[in-house]
Amino acid sequence: MAVIRELLAVPMQTGATSDIQSGIARKAGVLWCTRHRDESARSRAVMVFVHPSSNFMAHYALDPLAHLGIDAVGMTTRYLGNESALQLENCVVDIGSVLHHLREEGYEQIVLAGNSGGGGLVALYQDQARKATITSPPAGGAPDLTQAVLPPADALVMLMAHPGRSSVLTEKIDPAIVDEADPFRRDPELDLFDPNHGPPYSEEFLERYRAAQLERNRRITAWTQARLAELPELSDGRVDDLPFVVHGTMADPRNLDLSLDPSDRKATTQWGPPYRANLTPATLAHFTTLRSWQSQWSYDLSNGHGPTRLREVDVPVHVVYGTADPGCYPGHARSLYDAVPHDRKLLTPVVGGGHYLYGQPEQLDFTVRLLADWTRSL
Fold first, then answer.
1. Secondary structure of the chain: what % helix, strand, coil (to 5)?
2. Which of 341, 199, 219 is closest to 267 using CA atoms?
3. Is residue 22 part of a domain?
4. Strand (E) or helix (H) holding 49
5. I need a surface site. Which of 27, 111, 145, 348 has the fewest CB within 10 A?
6. What is the DSSP letter of 146?
7. In this structure, are 207 and 239 located in the same domain?
8. Band of the pLDDT at 17, cuts 50, 70, 90?
9. Gene3D superfamilies from the xrefs (predicted)?
């Protein structure tokens, strides 16, 4: 079977505003996707892979699924390469644009697959596609999801996914940082990397640590709210958002203590050793804005908590997780699975599977065949 790859240019539903860094992207108003399919025929079903900001146009499952007779689309949102200004509600609108385009092309069945940070996003999407209730992001403004075109998916896949960006950041944010401008001013009583605390970590330390993580997330949220309230006066109404830096975003005790939420993983992160990953700019949530923080990172304000959004989902859901994933744990997968209220759901481990299945041909083949067979069974 020969696979062809097609570039899809999907028009955005809403005008691209200045939260998109690229001027060309703002003016074009286009979402780019790749479709991989058998050259001889288009299948009746298509699986769409999405993440809030990652480029899934070359997702590892696209070609293998097409070889198995399932059309596969890797999409981008308007925030490709610009996670710092991301608002989840706009990502929902972008998914709606892509699914509407595919429906118009005649697909009978659309399976929406949220990989990694896409898990909470597809849960939010399906919840709002079923019955839209969100009229603005947490900090206000557009979009109004009750006015958007949001065709429901026919099934959901949560692939190596965590419950959502706000919850996973809260689990990983470093509570030892006492000065938001200086990551090296630290509270020694909350320093995960001090060997006097562990690993293994005591229940008493973990209880204090988790409470302090939540408190730091809430402290940053309160600061963003106060800062936004000041902006109209400070800028004479000319500025409605500001950027800022968040230090220490990869300090989950599970990255060092393998007795917590046990699995086959190693004591590391997707970005390498935990101490370095905690501070290196390439990792989670280091660059953001006042409005973006509230939409995607705030524990209390974000709309993107997957288990909450899955509580009334009425389509089949398949949660697939890797037992050697260093960042998305069995407990994450179980929380998504348990939230689905019906029995048309599956929870499947990929034994030995890492976060991206990179260099794991056996696990990749198992995962892709699993998804293809499940899609055909719907």
1. 35, 20, 45
2. 199
3. no
4. strand 45-50
5. 27
6. G
7. yes
8. low
9. alpha/beta hydrolase
Which residues, in sequence order, are bridge partners of residue 182?
179
Position 25 scores a pLDDT of 57
Specify whether 58 is located in the same domain as 101: yes
Beta carbons of 197 and 263 less than 8 angstroms apart: no
The domain containing residue 334 runs over which residues?
A: 33-164+303-377
Percentage of the chain exceeding pLDDT 90: 92
Beta-bridge mates of residue 318 = 157, 346
- Give the pLDDT mean for 94-117: 97
Sign of CA dihedral 199, 272, 157, 85: positive
**CATH code, domain carrying 332:** 3.40.50.1820
DSSP run (H or E) holding 349: strand 345-350
Could you give the dihedral angle defined by the CA atoms of residues 162, 163, 169 and 175, in that order, rounded to the nearest 10 degrees?
-110
Query: Is 241 part of a structural domain of the chain?
Result: yes
Q: What is the pLDDT of residues 161-217, one digit of tens each?
A: 999 999 999 999 999 999 999 999 999 999 999 999 999 999 999 999 999 999 999
Do residues 207 and 239 make contact, with C-beta atoms less than 8 angstroms apart?
no
List 110's β-bridge partners, or say none.
Answer: 46
